[in-house]
Amino acid sequence: MSNKRMLALVALLIGICALAAGCGGSSSTAASAAGSATSSGAESESSSDPSISLPAEKIGILNVNNADPGAALLESAAKEAAETLGWSTVSIDAGGDPSKMAAGMQQLVAEKVGAVLLDAVDPAAVTAGLRQAHAAGIPVVLYGGAGTQSPYVTQIVPNDYALGALASNYLINSLNGKGKVAIMTTDGIPWSRVRAELFQQVAKEYPGIEVVAVHQVNYANFNSDLLNATKAILAANPELNAILATISPYPTPIAAALKQAGATEKVKVVSFYDYPSERKLISEGDLSGVATASFPHNAYQAVDALAQYFGAHKPLSAAEQFALPLQYELVTSSNVPPGEEEPGTEAMVKFYENRWQSEFGK
Fold it and tell me: Domain for residue 128, yes or no?
């Protein structure tokens, strides 16, 4: 086995181990999650009782930053899923501002919502509101990106170690193990930090890879920040070969800055997720590739966990995501999907519609 293939395997195993240890699970233990996966997945289809009554609920959604197309897509899919169940939703856009996240969480509790979905919001940013929600008996589910562990939050999130391993190995292999790389990250967001740290860890195995800059992006104002930062890094490193962008909307301003500098062809950009704006960048040659898992699917997983909680009275658990697991893949110009809708979305939605119709008559 080649060194590169071995490293890829090791990186993925790191992710699997990290996930089992709770980096993207729920407040329940990995063992209990694994033990309940069967009962929450396939068996629930055969033992479902269509006479189960699903109460009407108002679901609060706290969006990390609606200017981020990925976060907006998550919210839209969660609302669609909730509507299928006959639930109403109320949403708050924190705009990437931690103070607005904290205030927004407390506002949702004050509005007496039945449950709260944290749309990629780190639980550490809303600690006071989480305590209030717990005291009021309001369950909280985080989806869209793993965050700081909290006893008051169930995390049903993509595995960022698996995503990070895919992106890191693709970038390094595309450079044939040699090149100067800059990282655009926001380490205050846990899933962004994981991706940056994992790349740097993998890169240590390649003496020819040099990380020449790590820029901390202002997520609340990422467009102007990245335009300026990309130009500055290029000026300081004219032989730059690649940029790793750890958050999904970052490639758009990076690509704009590279075009202005005439550096699009010589600097590869690798990032995460393939919603329509990212696919356009890939198709136009402004983005080399992304590691991805379906955001709409993850939103449906989170809403389904709440449906099981309110309708079937199952404890909230990350094991619910294994009823129909997320799929991880690398998207490049060779396999970029056409159109607006993600491949498999129709089948995914049908799966949950059938499940909810079978269990709750919805």
Answer: yes
